[in-house]
Amino acid sequence: MKDLPCKTSQVGIDPGKHAFHLHGQDAAGQAVFRRKVSRKQLIEFFATLHPCTVVMEACAGAHCMARKIAELGHESKLISLQFVRPFVKSNKNDFVDAEAICEAASRPSMRFVTTKTVSQQTLSALHRVRDSLVRDKVCATNQMHGFLLEFGVTLPVGNAVVRRLPVLLAEHSLPPRLVAILERLHAHFKYLSEQIGQIEKELNRQLADDAIAQRLLTTPGVVTITASLLASELGDGKQYRWALSGWARVPVPWTRLCIFDPNRFAEGVPPVQQVGDDYAFAFLRRKLLRQQAFTDAALDARDLCLDQRAHTVAVLNA
């Protein structure tokens, strides 16, 4: 193994929670070594290895490990699991998976996942915590509405009435134990609202130091939450060959993006599929639907005003 550093040109890593399986190969694609190391031994191993290309699956912890390996002078790449599966041979095990990663990464047309920065991962974590708190808040609201409905008290849809729940409880004669349960849910609702507000303030503080997010905020209709989500998922967008490819992570049909430039179909712009993070897709889809509903309502109101104006003019001219 003395000539291991000079022979190895590419290393595939099958990551695990505590152990990593490595498969190294030379420029001709011949296997050079196979090794199982711990998380600590992995960094020590690459610190002594000749600079080469290191490829691993894009999974939990892969972005952090890719950054550490890149700091040691190696070229780190992340590859999606769906692109590795076709290269897995029979008798599947961790070393075979690492070899398949090397084989997939050696394809000239292979697409890789861009390594996220620390800021991007932090923004992503904040978004997921906020989403969890919002879901808990909706659950608490629905429970309060449901319990009150069982005792004949109906409330309008929304959070405004829930905030003044103590006043409503004083106006109705309800069992003391039910009142205690509702008060506990109301306190939980207030706690969740405060936590969501604090996370949104933290997002604002992080966005103030993010040049990409600041540019996104100049886009009409893009606010703090949307800008931070796009910044955490798309980054600077340089990893996309076509601008349309970046929109594959956004819930907008790709044909709509070409509606103002039909010549793009003849320029070789490939159609894209909806890919990317499920949370980002769901969030942006909800936002798109809300904006579409608002736009439709505004257009309906405009058409109604035009119809009324035309009717008034017709009456005056009669």
UniProtKB/TrEMBL annotation:
<dbReference type="GO" id="GO:0003677">
    <property type="term" value="F:DNA binding"/>
</dbReference>
<dbReference type="GO" id="GO:0004803">
    <property type="term" value="F:transposase activity"/>
</dbReference>
<dbReference type="InterPro" id="IPR002525">
    <property type="entry name" value="Transp_IS110-like_N"/>
</dbReference>
<dbReference type="Pfam" id="PF01548">
    <property type="entry name" value="DEDD_Tnp_IS110"/>
</dbReference>
<dbReference type="GO" id="GO:0006313">
    <property type="term" value="P:DNA transposition"/>
</dbReference>
<feature type="domain" description="Transposase IS110-like N-terminal">
    <location>
        <begin position="11"/>
        <end position="150"/>
    </location>
</feature>
<dbReference type="InterPro" id="IPR047650">
    <property type="entry name" value="Transpos_IS110"/>
</dbReference>
<protein>
    <submittedName>
        <fullName>Transposase</fullName>
    </submittedName>
</protein>
